[in-house]
Amino acid sequence: MTTDSARVPRAAQATAVRRAASTILPPRGVRAGAPVPRAAGGSARRRAPVALMVSDTLSLGLAVALAAPGPWPPVAVLLQVTVQLLLNACRGLYRTGLSPSALAELPALAGLAAVQWYVIAEAVSAYDPRHAAGWLALGCAAGVQTVVSCGARAFVHRARLWSAGRSPQSTLVVGGGPVADRVVAVLQEHTRYGMRPVGRVVGSGTGTDARAGQAPLPVLASVQDAGRAVVQNSVRHAVFTVPPEAVADGPELFALFTRHRCRVWLITDQETVARRRTGPRPDHVWGFAAHSLQAGPHRPVAHGAKRAMDAVLATVALVVASPVMAACALAVRVCDGPGVVFRQERIGRYGRPFVLLKFRTLRPADAHESATRWNVSADRRMSGVGRMLRRTSLDELPQLWNVVRGDMSLVGPRPERPYFVKQFSRVHPGYRTRHRMPVGITGLAQVHGLRGDTSIEDRARFDNRYIETWSLWQDMCVLARTAGSVFRLGGS
After folding, report:
1. How many Cα neighbours within 13 Å face the side chain of 304?
2. Domains, the chain, ranges and CATH?
3. Whole-number pLDDT of residue 71
């Protein structure tokens, strides 16, 4: 079934909640239309990964100076620092959680330090047998590094919590009932989490009436009210006390918060909910299970590596595929006339529009048809060259330039046109949340055959699954499966 024949239900409207509450006012000195200022407490969280990297590097240097087996070559030290930072980043030791603990990180630090010392020692001894070291000496060096690193990390964590407590950031809490009341009370009392509740968002699907709450906070009954509160109060955090899909306006609220660069959290007393979303060890806020609902902000190192991999691979692919692209452009020009490259507005990460590039396979009648027609694979106006390009997916090659520019990634949810994003977001609650990640040329849904005129609900489910389980290795697997599917001529 295509979008044109699908019935789109009317979006649910938030119910009004009557409650006396203080009015949300804009910060002093901020003019209408001025950029939203960022609270001061965010700088400590942004600096935390760098401080942790510095502490790990210094602990390694101290271990080399005090416990290294004999004179350690400078090249080995440089290689060891690189390996250490990569291993710790892959293990997630540079994420900025709400309740960091150096003791909880101790087993991972010890294991990675031991692996790092033994691997580098084997490489050094293979290069120069004079630097061969015994197992006991390497174990002592790894132990010194672990102890020093754990102590330095405890200091960094304590400093970040202290800074967050002194300058908590404005926060909106989404949900009603006793759980939301307790979460608000905890955030107000324990400022070290860096959140200062300034309002409650209570829609028509939160389960209970916000009038049962006791926290003296303004109650916002619609997405529009929440949007004004975000701008007026420079809100930097949004806390859901139930999953967004369980709230009637959840997808719209999630899109609003991500569009304003807020960090979105799920904080609930239902451990199974957070465990299902983040694995066996979710974060916590005073005993409440907590999990970031965004992939990007809490994995800056890994996502920086993803962007670097995209830029390098896309640049290489553009160079390698340039003869093929030139041949495709010539074929389109000869068979279909001028206008080789087709430009179309698509929706990217956080709902931002960008211009997507493709080889033209069909000349639409007008701009309205281009923006609203769902599937053109059976259109009789398409030439033989256009059908060949679509069947082989060669029409997608210009999107490598979108990847180089940063509009897209090699792997991610496929971008769609604004008209269909609005339609699908109303029908499928999980569709809008797939914009948490950069859009891609290929994705987990596409390698499972969900291309062309296939289920949008299934695509959204696969896309959100990809985001919640994302890793660089998963990206490599998707790219390998995509390369294999090209030879099966499965284009749409």
Report:
1. 10
2. 11-24+168-292 (3.40.50.720), 43-164 (no CATH), 300-486 (no CATH)
3. 73
Least confident of 186-200, 227-241, 334-348: 334-348
Residue 26 neighbours by CB under 8 Å, 6+ apart:
231, 232, 233
Q: How is residue 34 written in tokens?
A: 């001025």
Chain mean position to CA 38? 20
How much is the CA Rg of the chain, to the nearest whole Å?
A: 26
The CA distances from residue 157 to 105, 145, 214, in Å, are 11, 18, 32
pLDDT(193) > 90: yes
**C-beta of residue 93 within 8 angstroms of C-beta of residue 52:** yes
Distances (CA, A) of 172 to 186, 217, 343, 435, 484: 14, 10, 39, 21, 46
| Separation of alpha carbons 142 and 145, rounded Å | 5
DSSP letters of 341-409? EEEEEEE-GGG-EEEEEEE-S---SSHHHHHH----TT-TT--HHHHHHHHHTGGGTTHHHHHHHTS-E
pLDDT tens figures, 308-353: 999 999 999 999 999 999 999 999 988 888 888 989 999 998 788 9
- At 94, the amino acid letter reads Y
pLDDT of residue 489: 55
CA-CA distance, 150 to 146, in Å (whole number)? Answer: 6
Residues 120, 80 contacting (CB under 8 angstroms):
yes
Distances from the Cα of 200 to the Cα of 120, 170, 196, 250, 285, angstroms: 53, 12, 12, 14, 18
How far is 291 from 239, CA to CA, in rounded Å? 10
Give me the sign of the Cα torsion angle 305, 308, 313, 314. Answer: positive
Residues facing 174 on adjacent strands: 201, 240
Q: What is the pLDDT of residue 229?
A: 93
Looking at the whole model, is its pTM more than 0.70?
Answer: no
* Sign of the torsion angle spanned by Cα atoms 52, 56, 59, 65: negative
